[in-house]
Amino acid sequence: MIIPVILAGGSGTRLWPMSRELFPKHLLRLTGSYTMFQQTLLRLEAVAAAAAPLVICNQQHYYPVARQMHELDLQPSAMILEPVGKNTAPAVAVASIKALSVDPEARILVLPADHLIGDVPAFGRAVAAADAYAQQGYLITFGVIPDAPETGYGYIRKGRPLDEAPTGQESAPAYAIDQFAEKPDRPTAEKYLASGRYCWNSGMFLFRAADVYSELSRFAPEIVSACRSSWDRAGFQEDALLLDSGAFERCPADSIDYAVMEKTEKGGMIPFEAQWSDLGSWAAMWETGQKDADGNVIAGQVMAREVKNSLVFSGPRLIAVLGLSDCVVVDTADALLVADRQRAQDVKAVASALKTENRREAICHATRFAKWGTCTEISQDARSRIRRICLDASRGLEFTSPWHGTLHWTVVSGRGRMEANGVSRLMENRQSVEIPPKSRVRAENAEADPLVLIEVCVPGDLPEHLCPDPDK
Fold it and tell me: Which pLDDT value is given to residue 164?
């Protein structure tokens, strides 16, 4: 049995302002109608004998991740929530514990949720090839055959061919791993490409759960101990398993590459070509995007005149771009990025500086996700704050209104019931209600369609009362 393990963590800060800490890049629709997370789930159809996926994500991403699986009508085998991010080695350790509880011979296919793979059948063939070696006890990683001297990826140098795979092997043999190399400078990357011995490190793996758990216990016992403790003390958040925060926070942070793959004698690499990219920057988005006659990648409402070799993404409003070359312009509801395309890797520093300054734009979008639906910030000043509240079907929310402010709700669409201080009333399209300060409020949508409200809070310079974080 192959259990796909989808690592839906990370922040993707190089794709700011679209990717943010509470809504990272794998949850974005960057390359089509499906998000990158959804594309990762859908390409599992190419993996023969794959079980339902195991999804591991940060606790604060639970609701958008669960919502996107629901959109696909997909039920995971399990969903595990990490209280804090600790890199990939602890995630693999927890996934191994879970897989071994299901099947002692289970193999786990570890896939980041934020990769683009254009040739899905080739991906399926690479997994089939890797599985033949994993069943012999090898810990297999996937190396992407490079077609350019890329400086944004780590590299793997292949060694001798591994022992011949069992009959039925579908692709080129696997190789021993000679060396993991960090992201190189341009001259070094050119040497790697010319040698023909290096592949890009894709961050995807396939191994038996028992084998990787054994190697983790050997090389990173502190990680295994903390993960086992957090597993044994885990609780639940709705349908997901929530790892114990005290034990997990004590876990060392490390990647599976450093913790195991660079040390084990059982490592191997399957080279493959599948039009792969980790879309790690806006420059990578431009490289992989569909270009017009002037070399531009454009999405949304954009008017471009005398613009060449640029990426322009608009948000909810029109963008006009004139006389630019080799630029990145990305607009969202609350932030705009304009950058030289060659400086795309430096966007991470901008996001980090915004976080240091405690700017909300580094953490979350104007739209926030909660278990009951979404809340979108429209405008805010000292006199008023305006929000759009959307309650999903059969969902409700409950809160206490601000102590020093009055709320005004107007129904835009849908039908629901609101209760304030014990007085209940039906709310329908175009109806409004005023909610006094310090009121205990409950709103409920009992219909199949969303209930959409516009909320005006007067005055507006108040602490957030409705959705201070997406878990409430």
Answer: 63
